[in-house]
Amino acid sequence: MPVERRALLRFITLYFALFSAFGFASPFLPAFLAGRGLGPEEVGFVLGAATALRLVCGPIAGRLADRLRAFRAEIAVCAVLAASAALLYLTAHGFWTVMAVSLLQAAALAPLVPLADALSLAHARPQQNTAGFEYGWVRGVGSAAFVVGTLLAGHVAGEYGLSAIIWLSATALLAIPFAAIFVPAFPGGAESEARHEERPHHPWLMLLRQRAFVRVTVVAALVLGSHAMYDSFAVIRWREAGISPATIGLLWSESVAGEVLVFLLIGATLLRVLNPTGALAILRPGALGGHGSNDRSCGACIGSAAARIHLCAPSPRNHAHHHRHRTV
Fold first, then answer.
1. What is the reported pTM?
2. Domains, the chain, ordered by start
């Protein structure tokens, strides 16, 4: 089997375990928290605080992985910690206890996707029509795994209650260390070490001086922020309306199917025909059109928009000074 195909299959395994863990828990977690005695304001505060903490812990973990050259080991350790924190939800009741567990898991979850992306992008082909695999293939499988996880979680939650999603998510998280062992290590060598020594003292300032980085970050923040309330309270609202967990899983999966479509089928063609700027531009009317119809079509439009952002983000390997683009 060619080296590129082996690497692709190993990354697919890692992303399947990673995103199935998210699919098991993410859609139903707000409803689970409400069942732990939290009101709507408290649910929003817990989820918002966890997101804010991830913004801090992600870059710190990336900087640590850069220094220690231990991407796979850090993924494995954080996955085990995240699984352990997930199980603590089962004993947590009340606002402050749930908040503590949520922050602990948020800190452990924060590095998983960025470090996995750093590894996969380092081994993906730098541009189309060259040897290797497309990053979009790996990320598309991850979105498909999220769909599978959400559908399964909906059926299991309907049979055994929302606590079952915690067990499913923890099991998938514990599979991540075994998958991470087999993915290729981050490229090293003498040249890489020399570049590592050239790291700027203030990497955030270096990033903020890059117009492409700032623009993509702003677009991503607007798109992802636009459906934060939808992500947090849709399942609670649907359950109050009498919709079954299995049906909720199906409705939620529809939005993520938009990501799968873009990543696996039309993403590369979209970039060739429209270029990254054009691809980002068309997400705006798509997302607005979704808001004008119903929750399900809104989710599908937002899902495809988020996928386009992933595909349009400039790869560090294509930059003239790619040695300065670290995981941080």
1. 0.75
2. 3-181+200-324 (1.20.1250.20)
